[in-house]
Every structure is written in C-alpha cells, then in structure tokens.
C-alpha cells in the first residue's frame, strides 16, 4: 500500500514506521482524492454547455458548443481525456467501456492487465498479454498503479504519461525505453482478485512473496528511486511480520527472518540515501536485534552514527564489524576515515597520526615537524598499498567471474 501519495508524503512515509499513520492521514488530500474529483467530472452530463474545467481540457476533443458532438458515443466510446493528476502529465482515455464503476479494482488487489507500451513516435517497446501485479504496491510504473484503479473491469484505455510516472530520466533497458520518454500505454483490465490472506498463506509462499517485493525494492533502489524502494521494502517487511495460522517449520521461520533482515538492511541503505538518518538507524537496530552479528547492519549503522556525529559509537560499531570480518577493506577504510574525523573533531591531530599509522609505540610528544614529513610518505605508501590490494581483489573477482 501507499504508492498513491505525493512525493512529499512518500518522503514522510519513508521517514519512519511511526510516521506511516500520519502520512496516510495526510494523503487524504492527495492523488486518490483528486482522482475522485475527476471521476465526478468524468460522469458529468456532457450536454452541459459550460466548457470543461481547464485541467480536464486535455486534447481539446470536447466541443461544448455543438450538442451533437458532446453526446456520448452510441457505441459506448467516450472520447475524452481524463487528466488524472491535474497537471496534464498523466492522461487516460477510455477506448472501450468496461462493466461500470463498481467493478473497479481496489488498491491491494491482484490485477491482471493486457499491456502495450509505445513511445510517442509509435515504436512498441513492450507487449504483455497478461501482466499481473498488486495494485498500488509499486510493482509496476506509477502510471499504471495510478490509472488502473480508475478502470472498470474489461475496460480498454489509452494512457499517456510523462516520463516522470514511467521510466524517468534514466529510461530503462528492459523494456527498452530511452531517457525522459513520454509513453503511450494501451491497457485492458482483465482480472482483479483479492490478495491472499497472509495468515493462511503457506510459509514458503510468504517467503516468495516477500522476496518478490524486496527485489522490486532493489530495482527501485538501483534506479535511484529511494522513496519507492523504501515503500517496497516496507511491504515486504509487513509480509514477513504478518501473523500466521498455519504450521511453520524452523527452516521456514529462518527463511522468513532472513528475508526480513535483508529488507531491513536494504531499507536502511535507502533511508541513508534519503538522509533519513533516524529512520535508517532504527532499521539497522531492528536488523541487529534479529542478527546481532550481521556485518552489513553493523557497517551501515556505523555510517549512520558517523553522519549523526556520534563518532565514538560509530567507531565502536565498525570495530565490531571489522572483528567479524577482519580482511574487509571497505570496513577498514570507513573506520580509518572515522577515526580521522573523530580526532579532528577533538582537535587532536597527533592522536590521528598515531591511530592512522597503527603504531602504538609511537610517542606523540616526540613528534617534530620532521616526523610529519615521514608521516606524509607513509601515508602515500599506505594508500598505494591499499590501491594495489583492491586492484588485486578486483582482478580475482574478474577471474572468478570468467571461470
Ligand atoms: C565488506 O563489508 C561491506 C559491508 O558489510 C560489504 O558491503 C562488502 O561487500 C564487504 N567487502 C568484501 C570484500 O567482503
């Protein structure tokens, strides 16, 4: 749930679990309601000779001065664009009427659609005879999540969307959509069924469902859509946390927990990208409650704490991570960076050199300007060696990948 929100509200939603409730309340004024407004317009008596409101003019197909043209098409076709968001960037036109308003699918239902996606020049980029997704979960591009809930069962509609509600500034490889591409979608709503009752869902299916939502989150993350990623991870988490009325084996329990911790870690990463440090910290803490030795959670928590200026705690956390994985260069680098920052914060430069060089016998009181220049040399050497080591790791990864 929760994709029908403005950007601002998405951000609020992703802020923290606690905020989710208030965000939902605030979304009362958002897209769903504007959708409702337009539904009313949609059904307005089009014999009315008032010109339609500006947002609804669309392609200017309506000619209110000519009553014959404003009569509904006797074949049941409605020749009018609906401006879904009121900004002209997402428009829907009914090509063939469906079963009526009551047959519209609800958010959270599983729907099946026939989809044909084209660029504005007519190039078809994707054709799906029966695409299934959960409505409003962010499983598909926003244009579909927003418009399919305005469709009646069996309805065929044409949707025109700005890149913003489709594949955005990055475009996509699969389907092949260039950057900033407006799209034209031909949709037929085929089916809508209630989502399965999570309490009765066999654990294996629960794991599969949660994993699917998590992968959706990963896809959003990779595209840089961090708020959408958080949304998908939250859905996955809810699935893993849902109570169950069916028997569950210890292995399945373990499997669910595993997905949950992965989601929490990925969620923390997304929240970090959104600069929601408190929320990210909560996610890490939650992950560590389940798996105290989870290196990813420790590593990310260290990062968050550092960003919050909690250097002492951050260093402690990263040391714990390093203890579990002593050869990890990323953790080493992050820790050195933190130790350095921490020292700077305390204004103790001598301590910084000592820790960076990892030379406990070094007596800072004897440090002279000359010592500083030798430090400079060692410093270069240290980073040169690190670069060589990382290069080696990269090379072995390449070799491993080829075999
Ligand atoms: C080091 O740890 C980080 C954080 O857990 C992880 O993302 C990274 O893959 C690790 N690197 C190696 C080489 O194991």
TrEMBL record:
<dbReference type="InterPro" id="IPR046357">
    <property type="entry name" value="PPIase_dom_sf"/>
</dbReference>
<feature type="region of interest" description="Disordered">
    <location>
        <begin position="1"/>
        <end position="77"/>
    </location>
</feature>
<keyword id="KW-0472">Membrane</keyword>
<dbReference type="InterPro" id="IPR011990">
    <property type="entry name" value="TPR-like_helical_dom_sf"/>
</dbReference>
<feature type="compositionally biased region" description="Polar residues">
    <location>
        <begin position="19"/>
        <end position="32"/>
    </location>
</feature>
<keyword id="KW-1133">Transmembrane helix</keyword>
<dbReference type="GO" id="GO:0044183">
    <property type="term" value="F:protein folding chaperone"/>
</dbReference>
<feature type="domain" description="PPIase FKBP-type">
    <location>
        <begin position="108"/>
        <end position="193"/>
    </location>
</feature>
<keyword id="KW-0413">Isomerase</keyword>
<keyword id="KW-0677">Repeat</keyword>
<feature type="transmembrane region" description="Helical">
    <location>
        <begin position="381"/>
        <end position="401"/>
    </location>
</feature>
<feature type="compositionally biased region" description="Low complexity">
    <location>
        <begin position="64"/>
        <end position="75"/>
    </location>
</feature>
<keyword id="KW-0812">Transmembrane</keyword>
<feature type="compositionally biased region" description="Basic and acidic residues">
    <location>
        <begin position="1"/>
        <end position="18"/>
    </location>
</feature>
<dbReference type="GO" id="GO:0012505">
    <property type="term" value="C:endomembrane system"/>
</dbReference>
<dbReference type="GO" id="GO:0043066">
    <property type="term" value="P:negative regulation of apoptotic process"/>
</dbReference>
<dbReference type="GO" id="GO:0003755">
    <property type="term" value="F:peptidyl-prolyl cis-trans isomerase activity"/>
</dbReference>
<feature type="compositionally biased region" description="Acidic residues">
    <location>
        <begin position="34"/>
        <end position="57"/>
    </location>
</feature>
<protein>
    <recommendedName>
        <fullName>peptidylprolyl isomerase</fullName>
        <ecNumber>5.2.1.8</ecNumber>
    </recommendedName>
</protein>
<dbReference type="Pfam" id="PF00254">
    <property type="entry name" value="FKBP_C"/>
</dbReference>
<dbReference type="InterPro" id="IPR001179">
    <property type="entry name" value="PPIase_FKBP_dom"/>
</dbReference>
<dbReference type="Pfam" id="PF14559">
    <property type="entry name" value="TPR_19"/>
</dbReference>
<dbReference type="InterPro" id="IPR019734">
    <property type="entry name" value="TPR_rpt"/>
</dbReference>
<dbReference type="GO" id="GO:0005829">
    <property type="term" value="C:cytosol"/>
</dbReference>
<keyword id="KW-0697">Rotamase</keyword>
<dbReference type="GO" id="GO:0016020">
    <property type="term" value="C:membrane"/>
</dbReference>
<dbReference type="InterPro" id="IPR050754">
    <property type="entry name" value="FKBP4/5/8-like"/>
</dbReference>
<feature type="repeat" description="TPR">
    <location>
        <begin position="295"/>
        <end position="328"/>
    </location>
</feature>
<dbReference type="GO" id="GO:0005740">
    <property type="term" value="C:mitochondrial envelope"/>
</dbReference>
<keyword id="KW-0802">TPR repeat</keyword>
